[in-house]
Design a protein that fits this description.
Strand content: 15-25%
CATH topology of the largest domain: Fructose-1,6-Bisphosphatase, Chain A, domain 1
Helix content: 25-40%
CATH architecture of the largest domain: 2-Layer Sandwich
Largest sheet: 8 strands, mixed
Order of helices and strands: HHHEEEEHEEEEEHEHEEHEEEH
Distance between the termini: 58 Å
Bound molecules: 2,5-anhydro-1,6-di-O-phosphono-D-glucitol, manganese (II) ion
Strand order of the largest sheet: 2-1-3-4-5-6-7-8
Number of domains: 2
Structural class: alpha+beta
Radius of gyration: 21 Å
């Protein structure tokens, strides 16, 4: 053990690499570059109003809009720049894709190209920036197509979550943390503000299979599909309902912070497909939100699903594809999947939870 008494992220990565004697070290260097980008973002976030980083990007012009149709915050754009600049030079990447860029990013010709693709949400939960609530960054590492000199295309990134080489997130909360899976469990690191190093503080994170805590944006309840409505109503019914236990509810509106809470103490998160906007099947994005968080959850013994099928098996169809997302404690996610699988005619429509007395007082949308 080093003098600091804890393993650094670097040491963790080197020890992991020893399992693969043929590994070149490219992968470790890439993860350390990503961690560096996260440290840079953590510093920018920490300066808040003092750093002139709050508010909308190009505020004078009323803000810029990204491919999602969302107004970009200054920190969305800055965080995206940090990811690009800090990882593009190393020779480990063939290309990148981000929430903030419509098309894949090509590695500039002045740098060597590598064998990985990096996909990221540079700042998740960015509506929380201006109110000083936790935000984070999410990333996923995929293999690049066989080496040739062509530019990367959108199709190169359309790989199911099972193909991820690694995934992780940084959380910029009261402490900055870096949580990583390289397909061998999940490890959590805390940024030591004195050393500027991520130190291993949470080895082998696991998600308890059972929970009494759920997270969902209840303002969307009138748009929910019947299985989701049933699940939430049963949670709300508490001890006197079919679950025979009381539930607690949380909603931070930073998915990365909800994922972290669930890794720490269990819980279930739902941003399901709903009927709000037929053109948007779900709110969150498959490639840089659902898949990396899904990989982490599964590596920690939890589960991630669309509600209908395992998230990591979904074949992506577009870079910025949205999808219904349910993740967290295994038994709860399985229960939600069961509710989706049950044919509607098997539901007890006379049950008070589905009728006029629904706790959200909504008709069932089948
Ligand atoms: P982003 O800031 O990257 O666009 O993601 C925000 C996401 C996610 O973090 C969060 O769970 C969700 O949007 C919040 O949605 P609501 O505004 O519906 O609460
Ligand atoms: Mn996000
Ligand atoms: Mn974002």
């Amino acid at each position: 053990m080093p003098l600091t008494g804890r393993k650094t992220l670097t040491q963790y990565l080197i020890e992991e690499r020893r399992r693969f004697p043929e590994a070149s070290g490219d992968f470790n260097a890439l993860i350390l570059d990503v961690a560096m980008a996260c440290k840079a973002i953590a510093r920018a976030v920490a300066f808040g109003a003092l750093g002139d980083v709050l508010g909308n990007h190009a505020a004078a012009a009323g803000g810029t809009v990204n491919v999602q149709g969302e107004t970009q915050k200054k920190l969305d754009v800055l965080s995206n720049e940090y990811f690009l600049r800090i990882t593009e030079w190393g020779g480990h990447l063939a290309g990148m894709a981000s929430e903030e860029m419509e098309a894949p990013y090509q590695i500039p010709g002045t740098y060597p190209r590598g064998k990985y693709l990096l996909v990221f949400d540079p700042l998740d939960g960015s509506s929380n920036i201006d109110v000083n609530v936790s935000v984070g960054s999410i990333f996923s590492v995929l293999r690049a197509p066989a080496a040739d000199d062509r530019e990367v295309t959108e199709a190169d990134f359309l790989q199911p979550g099972t193909q991820q080489v690694a995934a992780g997130y940084a959380l910029y909360g009261p402490t900055t943390m870096f949580v990583l899976t390289v397909g061998n469990g999940v490890a959590g690191f805390t940024l030591d503000p004195n050393l500027g190093e991520f130190m291993l503080t949470h080895p082998e994170l696991t998600v308890p299979a059972d929970t009494q805590e759920f997270a969902i944006n209840a303002s969307n309840s009138r748009f929910w599909e019947a299985p989701v409505k049933r699940y939430v109503d049963e949670c709300l019914a508490g001890r006197t309902g079919p679950r025979a236990k009381d539930f607690n509810m949380r909603w931070i509106a930073s998915m990365v912070a909800e994922a972290h809470r669930i890794l720490m103490r269990g819980g279930v998160f739902l941003y399901p497909r709903d009927t709000k906007d037929a053109a948007r099947p779900g709110r969150l994005r498959l490639l840089y939100e659902a898949n990396p968080i899904g990989f982490i959850m599964e590596q920690a013994g939890g589960r991630a699903s669309t509600g209908r099928v395992p998230m990591l098996g979904v074949q992506p169809e577009a870079l910025h594809q949205r999808i219904g997302l349910v993740f967290g404690s295994k038994h709860e996610v399985e229960r939600i999947e069961r509710y989706h699988a049950e044919p509607p005619e098997h539901l007890d429509l006379a049950h008070p939870l589905f009728g006029e007395r629904s706790l959200f007082r909504e008709e069932m949308a089948l």
